[in-house]
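Open question from group meeting: does this chain pack into something compact, or does most of it stay loose? Before anyone orders reagents, we agreed to write out a predicted structure and look at it together. Recording both the input and the output here so the notebook holds the full record.
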Amino acid sequence: MNKLLLIFMFIISTNVFSAQNFSCNDCNGYCKDINSCDLAFFCLTKCNKTRFDRDKDQIPCENVCSIPKINGIKSNIIFDLAERSFSQYFFPHANTNVNNTEYLRVYNNQYKAALITKNTQIHYGLNDQWHHFGTLEDANRLLCNNSCW
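Structure tokens returned:
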């Protein structure tokens, strides 16, 4: 069953972003006008608004974004994709725990499923066994053909 899940996750090629509905028209201002890291990340990655990342470190609008926030946004995108694509394993969503280095979702089901990102490394748990998937960037490349962000 675990191999099957990995195979399906590698095959998926879906263009996703966060649950919010942003448009590139929302990206007309500057960082001083942005109060959401989600929006700043969207503007940089989906609308190519490079003015939101003047120091070119892939962290837009550092007045509202930090590395942990960006990793949380990326984790959220990947976890949402897993929930949509493999709802039999990753449903129902029981809780989410977030701190500076970890983003964890636990699911209340027969598979004892969980998803975690720790220091950009993604792991999934099924039936009390943890499996390493790769990095957030691996997930972007493998699951979304570099189009998740």
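Observations to bring back to the group:
Helices lie at 2-11, 37-46, 67-85, 136-144.
The radius of gyration is 16 Å.
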